[in-house]
Amino acid sequence: MSVTDSVYDYRYENGRRYHAYSEGKYPVPNDEVEKDRLDLQHHAFRLTLDGNLYRAPIPKDVQNVLDVGTGTGIWGDSEHPSAQVIGTDLSPIQPTDVPPNCSFLIDDFENDWIFREPFDYIHTRAMVAAVKNWPHFIQQLYANVKPGGWVELQEISFPPLSTDPSITAENSPLLRWSDLFHEAASRIGLDAQGPMKIGPILRQSGFVNITAKTYKWPIGRWAKGDKMKLLGRFCYEDLLDWLPSSSLGLFSRVLKWSRDEIEVFLSTVRKELKEEKHRHFYANV
């Protein structure tokens, strides 16, 4: 959809590019490096779901679909031939060559939604670094889905974990980074553990027939089986790019670290991930 030139007046900081619309709300870049990471993460989610885009039992001929926080638009541009799909995001980083049934809207999901009619299915994914008010967000979902429709939230939870209980933030740079991310995020109103708390909020908002499913994402190729080894490779590469994407903005703006301090610290995390394969880190999704 048409946008004003101001949304392309990006902010540049620490060598990365950030959104201009509702500037500063989302502390993660929107540049080419981050776009590539988002597309890679999309494939990790699809592999997790055995090639599917969703788990909800929506009909094949679903009509009206909303993808909140669409990012590069790769989810909405995938496989919905019968549906009119709208993807919303703060950044206009979606492709212009898309099927006629797919469109993108630059919007801040934390504002009140003004869609003309409710949707059959609403999809959100990896919003942990974006949602500041989970109850309000879920109330918006409830108000904008049709009776009998479905909402699906695919989320990554913090902190990352290890199969070895002796691995803690005291002896692991990765877990130390996770603690720092959680601290910085909380100072600006983000809850890195929010996705693990949304079940009761869904019920309080009026949703019924709620199903929760947890998957493990191995970080690296340590897990057994071809599928899990491939997933681990995706997650490893995703995390390597996520470390600077998530840290440069938050750590410099909130924790007041210099770029050099951030890069030196992240180098210790990368070293651990590369050399300490026996630590068997994973994330719950």
TrEMBL record:
GO terms for molecular function: methyltransferase activity. Keywords: Methyltransferase, Transferase. The keyword Methyltransferase applies. It comes from the Eukaryota. SUPFAM superfamilies: S-adenosyl-L-methionine-dependent methyltransferases (SSF53335). GO terms for biological process: methylation. The keyword Transferase applies. PANTHER family: 2-METHOXY-6-POLYPRENYL-1,4-BENZOQUINOL METHYLASE, MITOCHONDRIAL, METHYLTRANSFERASE. This is S-adenosyl-L-methionine-dependent methyltransferase. It comes from Polyplosphaeria fusca.
